[in-house]
Automatic annotation (TrEMBL):
NCBIfam families: cyanamide_fam. InterPro entries: Cyanamide_hydratase_HD (IPR017771), HD/PDEase_dom (IPR003607), HD_domain (IPR006674). PROSITE patterns: HD. It comes from the Eukaryota. SUPFAM superfamilies: HD-domain/PDEase-like. Gene3D superfamilies: Hypothetical protein af1432. This is Cyanamide hydratase. It comes from Rhypophila decipiens. Residues 83-198 form the HD domain.
Length: 264
């Protein structure tokens, strides 16, 4: 009727961002929006001139954090030894990249080493045979969901912002491209994994750092191990996200990684 009010109309409630998304958490857990194209953020960075040595002993792994200690034990148990060593190399390579390529940035000064360690340890958890066969999901997505559920479980009780940052970075750690944005944590994990797997941006880390990290965490046939994992996933799941890189291109890059050739 004219002039009547429809009391049945739903009231639109304003959408609020999660209370975890405070400015402090954005910086602490690496949520800062960062260009997805690595060349964009590395342009004019000091990587153009080989950085100095930064050894394993110079980088503190946050094993004094109870959540990190538990996740490290979990990763040791669940991951094959070469994959675990790769995960540890990723932490040290990522730490060196942050320290030497972003020395004065707010991200470098505020990013939690624990969040970086958790992401490094869990980023390939989806590649285990059990986890590969348990789902139709691509390994990065499966790994992200496993990490999120693990970290938010009662046993681990990670803060929401930290658990979600780890999951986001794992899901997107093969999201290589030139457009759009990714989290700072996700970009650092991409740079470190590409460096270890295919020798991407070879001058971003010094030879002394590379030698020391590989000495501390030997490769043990990592190239062949990871190449086999890639082939197996694509065979089982021809829709998987890895295919966006290109199967042969990726496998050839892993097996032909000259930067890491010669390390045990």
């Amino acid at each position: 009727m004219p002039g009547s009010t429809n009391n049945l109309s739903p009231k639109v409630q304003p959408i609020k961002m999660s209370s975890a998304s405070t400015p402090e958490n954005i910086a602490l857990h690496g949520w800062t929006a960062t260009p997805r194209g690595a060349d964009t953020i590395l342009k004019s960075r000091p990587y153009l001139h080989e950085p100095g040595p930064l050894l394993v002993k110079d980088i503190k792994f946050p094993s004094d954090d109870p959540i990190v200690a538990k996740v490290q034990a979990y990763a040791c148990e669940k991951l094959p030894r070469p994959t675990y060593h790769h995960s540890m190399r990723v932490f040290y390579f990522a730490s060196a990249i942050i320290s030497q390529q972003f020395p004065s940035s707010a991200q470098q000064q505020q990013l939690s080493p624990s969040t970086l360690a958790l992401t490094s340890l869990l980023h390939d958890i989806g590649t285990t045979r059990q986890n590969t066969l348990s789902t139709q999901l691509s390994f990065e997505f499966q790994g992200g969901f496993i990490a999120l559920n693990l970290l938010q479980s009662e046993q681990y009780s990670a803060p929401q912002s930290q658990a979600e940052a780890v999951a986001e970075a794992i899901i997107r750690h093969q999201d290589i491209g030139t457009t759009g944005f990714i989290t700072f944590l996700g970009q650092i994990i991409q740079l470190a994994t590409l460096y270890d797997n295919v020798g991407g941006h070879p001058y971003i880390i010094s030879k002394e750092t590379r030698d020391d990290v590989n000495r501390e965490f030997p490769r043990e046939g990592w190239a062949g191990c990871f190449a086999s994992t890639i082939r197996e996933e694509v065979k089982l799941k021809p829709w998987c996200h890895t295919t966006h890189i290109g199967l042969e291109e990726f496998v050839n890059g892993v097996e032909g990684n000259l930067l890491m050739n010669g390390y045990p």
